[in-house]
Design goal:
single chain; alpha+beta; five-stranded antiparallel sheet
């Protein structure tokens, strides 16, 4: 075998091993490459309070477009540290349409954080409204908000806390 062929085969094997490793650890990357996932971005600067106490473990992300390109004003909260039964890993707060929901899919195929950037699959972008009696919790979270603060309640017995208050500090978000 020629030296060029051996080198080419070696590089191909190395690429296959790297690609396989990335797929096993971050399967959402392949969805992103083929267009069925998007990058929401890095967490915004916000103070999050649960039951009135500062909670630095909850990350807040902001996005302004739905998958179909329609404008919106949504905040996505990452609650992975608090989820016990796998039903409430993320909470979507839609200020444009004034509702709160949980994603229908929350596996690593639907959400993953890579280098602090949150990736979301198309399936992960569908949410069940907390108020829905079939797919949600049949619960009114009593959402209130203004330009600098968002407040709502959590369905009973779902997490270690019952309420969330978000103080928005991110200049980019406040100026939009």
């Amino acid at each position: 075998m020629s030296k060029v062929l051996k080198t080419s085969i070696g590089l191909l094997v190395i690429f296959a091993v790297i690609a396989g490793s990335v797929y096993l650890n971050h399967p959402i990357i392949s969805k992103w490459i083929f267009g069925s996932a998007r990058i929401i971005g890095k967490p915004i600067n916000a103070n999050v309070y649960t039951d009135g106490h500062i909670n630095n473990d909850i990350k807040v992300y902001h996005y302004q477009k739905y998958w179909d390109g329609e404008n919106t004003n949504c905040y996505l909260l990452s609650l992975k540290e608090f989820d016990k039964i796998g039903m409430l890993k993320f909470i979507n707060v839609d200020l444009k349409d004034k509702w709160i929901g949980r994603p229908v899919g929350t596996t690593k195929d639907d959400y993953d954080s890579i280098n602090r950037n949150l990736f979301q699959s198309e399936v992960g972008s569908h949410f069940a409204d907390f108020k829905d009696d079939m797919k949600g919790y049949d619960f009114d979270p009593k959402l209130t908000f203004n330009d600098t603060e968002i407040k709502f309640n959590i369905p009973p017995n779902q997490l270690k806390f019952n309420s969330i208050r978000i103080e928005l500090n991110d200049e980019e978000v406040l100026n939009k």
